[in-house]
Amino acid sequence: MAAAEEFVKANESYAQRFDKGDLPVPPARRVAVVTCMDARLIPSRFLGLEEGDAHVIRNAGGRAAEALRSLVISQRLLGTNEVVVIHHTDCGMLTFRNEDLHAKVRDELGADASHIDFLPFSDLEQSVRDDVRLLRESPLIGDDVTVRGFVYEVETGRLRPVD
Ligand SMILES: [Zn+2]
């Protein structure tokens, strides 16, 4: 069975016990989480989030630069005033360089991706510090917005602050 068909089946039981159809659009806890798309991370579980609580913006690595568009919408239009950046141990972004992926796209697809910075990193803690700083210094993020950075450990399920 294709994943999409399995999803439809799984959703049937979710919808059966669903009782949150009247939540407002703005997140109740006024926070946006920026984190990696890694399949081992389920932010709602490890952060204790319920429907309606928070924006969770995910991309490869949980990179802030790519999340900026969504963060401006989150803050200007939907009232969030806190950002939590969460990168994680054993992230795939630690395993390649831009040149490697540019070459792979060229070899496998015959396409040119050389204009894309895939935002890989070689130092996990430093990548969190870089993204927290990027947001704190960005003119698109208000001065009243709190930005904190963490590493999530896929080995233990624990969240570790990065200062
Ligand atoms: Zn990752």
Describe this structure in words.
With 163 residues, this protein is α/β, with parallel strands linked by helices. It has a single domain (26-153), classed as 3-Layer(aba) Sandwich (Beta-carbonic Anhydrase, Chain A), CATH 3.40.1050. Helix content is 37%, strand content 18%. It contains 5 helices and 5 strands; from the N terminus they run H-E-H-E-H-E-H-H-E-E. Helix 2 (43-47) links the parallel strand 1 and strand 2 (54-59). The longest helix has 15 residues, at 64-78. The structure holds zinc ion. The site of zinc ion has 7 residues, from loops.
**Which ranges are low-confidence, i.e. pLDDT below 50, for 5 or more consecutive residues?**
none
- What is the global morphology? globular
Q: Could you tell me which ligands this complex binds, including any ions or cofactors?
A: zinc ion
CATH topology: Beta-carbonic Anhydrase, Chain A
What is the CATH domain class? Alpha Beta
Number of domains: 1
Percent of residues in helices comes to 25-40%
Report the span from N to C terminus: 45 Å
- Give the CATH superfamily: Carbonic anhydrase
